[in-house]
Amino acid sequence: MRSRCLCQICTCGRHHCPHGTTRIYENSGIYWPTTEYLEKYPTYGNVLPPQSLKPKQEIRTCGKMEGITTFKSDYCPYEIVRQPRHIPEEYKPKQGKIDLGTTYKRDFNSHKVQPVAILRSLERQQVKKGKLDTVPTYKDDYRPWDIQKSEPCKPEQTYHPPTVKFGNSTTFQDDYVPQETKRRESFKPSSVPRHSTAPFNGDTSHRLDYIPHQLEVKFARPKEVYKPTDLPFENLTTHRNDFQGLVGETAKICRPAYTGVTHIAHFEGSTEFRESFQPWEIPPPEVKKVPEYVPPTGSMQLHSTSHLDYIPYQASRVVPIRPVSHRRKNNFPFQGKSTMKEDFPAWESCRPGLIKQKQQIPNPSGKFDGLSTSRSHYVPHELIPTKSCKPLNAVLKSSVPFDDVTMYSIEYAPKKQEICPASYPTPPGYIFENTNIHGHKFFRKITPAVKAF
């Protein structure tokens, strides 16, 4: 009998043979794991897969289904006692008058209010009868002390104006030494126009090389003469010719008639606010009289400290040391003519007028009837509603009992879940034979013994 590997015995596809040693350590007799993971985490023994708690799928007999549920079997109904309803008593109105007085009316009685007097202080009018010999509080309480003025420690610096005329030279005049500048020879051509005695030769290469050719006679198309038609112009369009209009009633206005609201009774202009708050007479404010301006007598001194202390000095203006610029002056007149102006003189151009086409269709004459083409030709028609082809939403009731048998419930056959033989340490029906150099475990199948008769 041929031996089979654990990978071949497995039926679920999850079991494989563990890899053994490599060919380097094949004949050494020492077991070496292939990875570091196998060194740190050693393998455990073969563990059977957990048993499934899923109920087995058995074929149920099609019998009558009981309508009892766990809720119906456990639920116990209780007796419900109806609560007595409260009947309200019949309302009986009290005899006598109702006291409409409130605590506000009782505690706060109305009083007559008079206009509030103005608390603004009246302006005092100063009456100048004589000299006022009074001492104010500030002068009476705060009197000046006799304090001697401290002498300044700053040395006196009296300015003495110079008596000699200012004639000192500046730093620029001391350092700058004037040198004689030699005038450079100018290589620029003179701006004096040179007039040649020879006549101007106006021949160009274009005039010499240009050969005039004789042009062919241009074909002139004869202009067609406009011939007006003898028939009169019909101002009827296709729309007016086909739709001549019908006499109809004028459209009625749906707006309601306006009726003005009038009140016969006289309007009383008094309100609660006007009755409660009546205007009071307020005296006009007194206007303060401004005293007239009296100009002071005498002349005004316009002298200031700057005018009195300033002493003008007579000093000469500093002569500049920069060289004088030599400008050339041309006495001949400016010629404003150019080749461009002579060859291209200005043309007299006029703006063309607007081209307006004559109106072919004349404007209508007469009064507008007020009827449009749509109103005169419109014929109202009665609308016929379309018939709905949608089926009615009616529930179909049948007296035949519902057949709950399906093809799935008839043809379905549950299969028994088989356990993979490779999940056992030694597969049932096999005997361990040996382990390959690649780590594959081989098992040999046990043949059943045949009894001799």
Short key terms for the protein model shown above:
little secondary structure, extended, 14% helix, single chain, 3 strands
**Biggest sheet details:** 3 strands, antiparallel
Largest sheet, order of strands side by side? Answer: 1-3-2
Ends: how far apart? 25 Å
Q: Count of DSSP helices?
A: 13
Q: What series of H and E elements makes up the topology?
A: EHHHHHHHHHHHHHEE
Question: How helical, in percent, are the residues?
Answer: 10-25%
Describe the overall structure:
- The structure is a single chain.
- Residues 24-28 have low confidence and may be disordered.
- This protein has a three-stranded antiparallel sheet.
- The radius of gyration is 67 Å and the shape is extended.
- It has 13 helices and three strands, in the order E-H-H-H-H-H-H-H-H-H-H-H-H-H-E-E.
- Helix content is 14%, strand content 3%.
- The protein is low in regular secondary structure and 453 residues long.
Write the layout of secondary structure elements.
Blueprint: E1 4-5, H1 6-9, H2 36-40, H3 70-74, H4 103-107, H5 137-141, H6 171-175, H7 205-209, H8 238-242, H9 272-276, H10 305-309, H11 339-343, H12 373-377, H13 407-411, E2 430-435, E3 441-445
Antiparallel strand pairs: 1-3, 2-3
